[in-house]
Amino acid sequence: MNKVIVETSARHIHVSKEALEALFGAGYELTKKKDLSQPGQFACEEKLLVVGPKGTLKASILGPTRPASQVEISLTDARSIGVAAPIRESGDVAGSGACKLVNPETGAEYELAEGVIAAKRHIHLTPEAAAEFGVADKEIVCVKIASDSERTTIFGDVVVRVSEKFAPAMHIDTDEANAAFNASREVWGEIVK
């Protein structure tokens, strides 16, 4: 059966080396807190304030650094701070929302002219898992949350992302998770074509 674990991706920030050094100082290195499900990705001890015209949120940084900074928040978060957050795949930040990033410890600021998005729901798969599930990179599928969920839900418009660097997992944001299931337990979804 085409089942994949469904993980809730809470608000977070990916920073470029330039942004990291502007916020924490030259030569600063991120402090790993814990590894994430995707190989090589980790949650950091460092947190930043995401400042919009209507409010501020606190979010963790995920490492390692990336070529461009990116803030991933839910649509509820975006409305609460008054920023535009188009639904996009990670890395697709051209013309997306702007905000200010602030180090809450020092007050150092970094203006992000674009880079605020609500991440498009997606599934990470290895090439082997994609072949087994009969799906291809960039294919759009539906995912049915396991029937033992309190709220049977079918998510549409789920993009499949295939790479040898991935571990099989579906990622949805907190708005989607809250609408579909109790995140305090392991949840599985079935790929439906």
Describe the structure concisely for a colleague:
With 193 residues, the chain is an alpha/beta fold.
> Percent of residues in beta strands?
over 45%
**Total beta-strand segments:** 14
Measured as a percent range, the helix fraction is 10-25%
Mean pLDDT reading: 94
Spatial separation of the terminal alpha carbons: 13 Å
Summarize the structure in words.
This protein has 193 residues and is an alpha/beta fold. It folds into 2 domains: 110 residues, no CATH class; 72 residues, no CATH class. It has 4 helices and 14 strands. The strands form 2 sheets. It has a 6-stranded mixed β-barrel with strand order 1-13-10-12-11-14. A 6-stranded mixed barrel has the order 2-5-4-8-9-6. The chain is globular, with a radius of gyration of 17 Å. The mean pLDDT is 94.
